[in-house]
């Protein structure tokens, strides 16, 4: 169609996601999104939605992208639970080390800002955290941890995973982050050996 600007929605969503990830929801303006995506304001609104709708799309995109990687890492939990949990954390550590994406975690960043966010965004961030805890619980149950231990470790490991992103943003280096992971894996190893 003559005069209609064509663009790749996936590329625009990724650019918006990185902008939100880098600056946060409150500190990202529609003009910032326009610069990041290369789209004018009217194209953003007509194609991607208002700022809140776009943020929700980006948050879902982020949670799905890394959630799929977490699921893959945890898929061997029934036979190699410690390796699966280490690989789960490796997804986060690789993301933190990736120079092509902002430091930290979009979900953790959103959760930290919940008091200042709309109920819709707050609910979506809580859902993303709940999905992470649920995937860990499923993996730990498959590893034959008793239900109570699986619940407790799922909450703990999800919290540690989010803290890695926060600690990274605060300047913790790779060795410190790996040490945090190893303390959690060591505690899980003790729980797994105690079950037998």
TrEMBL record:
Among Gene3D superfamilies, the record links this protein to:
Homeodomain-like, Tetracycline Repressor, domain 2
Q: Does the keyword Magnesium apply?
A: no
Name the UniProt record assigns to this protein: TetR family transcriptional regulator
Source organism per UniProt: Amycolatopsis deserti
The ranges the UniProt entry gives for DNA binding are 29-48
Q: Which SUPFAM superfamilies match?
A: Homeodomain-like, Tetracyclin repressor-like, C-terminal domain
According to the entry, every stretch annotated as the HTH tetR-type domain falls at 6-66
Keywords assigned: DNA-binding, Transcription, Transcription regulation
In its keyword annotation, does this UniProt entry include Nucleus? no
Cross-referenced PROSITE patterns: HTH_TETR_2 (PS50977)
């Amino acid at each position: 169609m003559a005069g209609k600007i064509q663009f790749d929605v996936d590329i625009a969503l990724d650019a918006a996601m990185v902008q939100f990830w880098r600056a946060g929801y409150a500190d990202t303006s529609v003009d910032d999104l326009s610069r990041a995506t290369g789209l004018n304001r009217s194209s953003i609104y007509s194609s991607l939605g208002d700022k809140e709708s776009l943020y929700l799309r980006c948050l879902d995109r982020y949670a799905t992208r890394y959630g799929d990687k977490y699921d893959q890492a945890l898929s061997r939990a029934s036979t190699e639970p410690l390796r699966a949990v280490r690989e789960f954390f490796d997804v986060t550590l690789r993301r933190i080390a990736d120079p092509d994406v902002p430091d930290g975690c979009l979900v953790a960043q959103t959760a930290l800002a919940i008091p200042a966010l709309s109920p819709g965004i707050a609910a979506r961030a809580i859902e993303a955290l709940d999905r992470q805890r649920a995937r860990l619980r499923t993996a730990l149950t498959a590893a034959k941890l008793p239900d109570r231990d699986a619940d407790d470790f799922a909450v703990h490991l999800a919290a540690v995973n989010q803290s890695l992103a926060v600690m990274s943003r605060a300047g913790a280096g790779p060795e410190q982050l790996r040490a945090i992971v190893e303390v959690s894996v060591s505690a899980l190893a003790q729980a797994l050996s105690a079950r037998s």
